From TrEMBL:
SMART domains to which the protein is assigned, alphabetical: WD40 (SM00320)
Keyword list, A-Z: Repeat, WD repeat
WD repeat copies, ranges: 59-98, 358-389
Biological process according to GO: regulation of autophagy
Gene Ontology CC terms: lysosomal membrane
Any Pfam family the entry gives: Beta-prop_WDR41
InterPro entries in alphabetical order: WD40/YVTN_repeat-like_dom_sf, WD40_PAC1, WD40_repeat_CS, WD40_repeat_dom_sf, WD40_rpt, WDR41
Protein name: WD repeat-containing protein 41-like isoform X1
PROSITE patterns membership: WD_REPEATS_1, WD_REPEATS_2, WD_REPEATS_REGION
Organism: Oopsacas minuta
Amino acid sequence: MLISITLTLDLLMAFKLRSNLFNFFFSHTGGEKIGEYPDPPPNPSSSDVQSPFTEVFSLEGHRNTIRYICLVRDMLVSCGDDGVLTLWDTETCKRICSTETHHLGVSFLYQPAYWHTNSNDSFLLTASPQVISLWQVAPDRIEHLQDFTGHSGSVRSLCIIEQGADGVLCAGGTNINIWERNGHQLKEVSRPLESSYLHHMLVLNSPGMCRLICASSHPFIEAYSLEKLQLDNILPPPEWEMYKAKHLRENVTQLVEVSKTVFATGSDDGSVILWSLDLLPIIVFNYLRDYCIESHEVISIAVEGRANTERKLISRSFPYTVLCMVVLQQRYVITGVGRAIKVYDTMVTKEEPILSVRPAHKSNVTCLALISEDTVLVSGAEDGSVRIWVGSEKNTAPPSLTSVRPLVQCLTSNHYLLLIGEILLHSQQVNGICDLCPLGFASCADNQIYIYKDTGYVENTEYTAIRKILSKSRHPQIRTFFSHLSKPEMT
């Protein structure tokens, strides 16, 4: 079902930052005092940048919460708790097809780029507590190719180890399982911490060293040495290592690759740590020296007639949890820490962020995405809000979006993140944001997907289509006029 929603600027788009919008108390990192945030730089009223994403389309069809969206061959793929894999046309915003995958829902979605042998092949891997499935995505259908079975427990992460022509599939959950591409299970590696599950995995390859880095629901980093993998797919037991640094006070929540020899982790306590391939911490960002954990005691008394006992249960919440991380040009780590967005430069030893918006949302930031060729940053939060940011020089603002420079050129102390738009359509936590450049971007929450189109791109596309039709008119004058008419410049 397609619902086209026309948004009025005064109701759904916030184009200006009020000087007192973000003025309240929040804890700072070590060395800083706890107090009010300084007001963000005011926007010049005469030259505010306006968000170009003013055409919004609703994609409906899922019956339960959507967890994942991704772009495959200019088409959008979505899946979630209803176990349905759906393919959408991003231009028309219509559903192409839907396929039932797993009745228990999809616990992980992965694009195995290493398996894309040619431009016509696009593959997806979906995981559930029972099976991992490989799918081929075509312009008009999603075709099931094969299943990978034999793992125990729910699969929370997938990756491809580049070995030989096809590589091998690695799945992480309570244990680690390895398959050939044809579905033959090669090995199951038992983990010492079987009470936990692996929720992030990545493979780092550098000359003389290849490691599988894993993050679990414990304050540990697990690393598996893969140097001895043989090209005939005979896998010896990988060397297992576990490292717990003094900086890892709480569970690791995020794991991202910065380069082939460096990766970064984010934790429940808000710390962002940069690691080398030999598992040594390079630098610790946002290390809260006196961080406070909000604890709540739940006391229950035994029923009358039994021993008068008392039981105390402590539940902890972390206001500065790192819930999302993206890397820009193998150097800058953009993080969502609690309600803030912070940008760290991995090439300097300074622990403070080079850019920070505190707070960036009224609730925790749950997802981040770089769109429009890394010129725009989009963030989503627990309250369902989606905000659009660009880099701007302090005390000035570019006159239009076309003059906005790539974010990598704006990551200095003389710049800040300028809020150019806010969209309040989702009613629950935003689970994913997907770049649809040059069309725009998409977001998902609850059972709803919204596509936000760049008005300039849409107008240019529509104009081109009309010009193409009229250039084939039977009337010579109309045909000649529109055949020689140049395209308008996109604004």
